[in-house]
């Protein structure tokens, strides 16, 4: 661009428009975050389904792999921020949505871990307890710890939320489709036994994150090749 | 009576830089150079002029042992850019 070139008004307007368009196209994320989360959540969901369907236990809680994925995710986000050529306003907003999403998932996990025992104690204080009674009396009654039926449906609903926001803001069709599938899985999960909810959760994780992540990765690598 | 166009903005490279920075929260010097097709020397001079006018903030730091210059538009810069676009619209009679 020549130095200090004086512009006509028309040229100025054209220049402003073309520069704004250049920012709109541009940089693609590398997709490793969505691929990582899509992988760990779908594996954990699918293994949980298998555990419930075929009644076996692993020596560890499979959901620990989701917790373990937080460390590489933090490293990747920091590295990505360092190498990123620019930060858009929409990126800040989307990051905020994903932080709120993470807090919501932690909140739900805490709810799931704490509420049943606290509820059981409160009921005990009131002088009653929940019992499981088999209608045909084929088994004796047994004490039941309070639980939230089909809670994983709520997780599926929460998975859809940041995905839809990202899809709308970034105009990224794979995430729009993914969130549409997630809402469909949520509705189906309302009518299915809780073990199948985990299967629907695995489908949600694959369509919301894993597949969009692979598409992002492909675009990122294509962009990188252009710049080499 | 037409409003006079801001002479700081009414130059090709400075206007290109401001048009980029109005669309993002912050941008790397190399990214701006790539998008504007300017030489590093020329861009440095124009960035300095925008900085002196108070239209942009320039942050120089080291990342992974490499110097990195980040530019960010200031509230004064946003105001000047908006006035400039309004003035252009008046000249060109566009809404």
A few lines on this structure:
Chain A is mainly α and 228 residues long. Chain A contains 8 helices and 3 strands.
Tags for this entry?
heterodimer; A: 228 residues; mainly alpha; two-stranded antiparallel sheet; 8 helices; B: 95 residues; alpha+beta; Arc Repressor Mutant, subunit A; 3-stranded antiparallel β-sheet; 20% strand; elongated
What does this 3D model show about the protein?
- Chain A is mainly alpha-helical and 228 residues long.
- Chain A has one domain (32-77, 94-216).
- Chain A contains 8 helices and 3 strands.
- In chain A, helix 2 (32-54) runs antiparallel to helix 8 and helix 6 (152-170) packs parallel to helix 8.
- The longest helix of chain A is centred in the middle third of the chain and has 38 residues, at 89-126.
- Chain A starts with 8 loop residues before the first helix and ends with a helix.
- In chain B, strand 2 (56-63) and strand 3 (66-73) form a beta hairpin.
- Chain B is α+β, with helices and mostly antiparallel strands and 95 residues long.
- Chain B has a single domain (12-92), classed as Arc Repressor Mutant, subunit A.
- Chain B is built from 4 helices and 3 strands.
- Helices cover 54% and strands 20% of the residues of chain B.
- Chain B has a 3-stranded antiparallel β-sheet.
- The A-B interface holds A 1-7, 9-13, 15-16, 19-20, 22-24, 82, 84-89, 91-92 and B 5, 10-13, 15-16, 19-20, 22-28, 30-31, 34-38, 42, 45-46, 63-64, 84-85, 88, 91-92, 94.
- Strand 1 of chain A pairs antiparallel with strand 1 (26-28) of chain B, so a sheet runs across the interface.
């Amino acid at each position: 661009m020549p130095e200090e070139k004086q512009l006509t008004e028309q040229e100025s307007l054209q220049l402003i428009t073309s520069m704004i368009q250049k920012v709109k196209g541009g940089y693609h994320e590398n997709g490793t975050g969505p691929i990582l989360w899509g992988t760990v959540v779908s594996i954990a969901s699918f293994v949980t389904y298998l555990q419930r369907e075929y009644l076996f236990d692993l020596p560890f809680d499979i959901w620990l792999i989701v917790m373990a994925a937080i460390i590489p995710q933090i490293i990747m986000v920091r590295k990505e921020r360092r190498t990123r050529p620019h930060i858009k306003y929409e990126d800040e907003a989307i990051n905020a949505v994903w932080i709120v999403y993470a807090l919501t998932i932690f909140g739900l996990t805490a709810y799931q871990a704490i509420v049943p025992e606290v509820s059981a104690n409160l009921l005990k204080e009131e002088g009653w307890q929940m019992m499981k009674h088999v209608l045909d009396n084929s088994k004796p009654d047994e004490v039941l710890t309070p639980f939230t039926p089909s809670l994983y449906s709520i997780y599926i609903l929460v998975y859809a939320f940041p995905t839809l926001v990202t899809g709308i803001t970034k105009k990224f069709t794979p995430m729009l489709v993914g969130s549409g599938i997630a809402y469909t899985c949520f509705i189906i999960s309302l009518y299915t036994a809780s073990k199948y909810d985990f299967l629907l959760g695995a489908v949600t994780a694959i369509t919301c994150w894993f597949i969009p992540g692979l598409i992002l990765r492909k675009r990122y690598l294509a962009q990188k090749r252009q710049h080499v | 009576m037409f409003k006079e166009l801001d002479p700081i903005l009414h130059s090709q490279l400075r206007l290109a830089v401001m048009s980029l920075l109005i669309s993002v929260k912050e941008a790397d010097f190399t990214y701006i150079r790539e998008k504007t097709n300017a030489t590093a020397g020329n861009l440095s001079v124009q960035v300095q002029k925008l900085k002196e006018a108070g239209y942009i903030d320039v942050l120089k730091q080291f990342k992974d042992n490499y110097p990195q210059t980040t530019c960010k538009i200031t509230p004064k810069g946003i105001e000047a850019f908006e006035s400039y676009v309004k003035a252009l619209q008046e000249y060109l009679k566009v809404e």
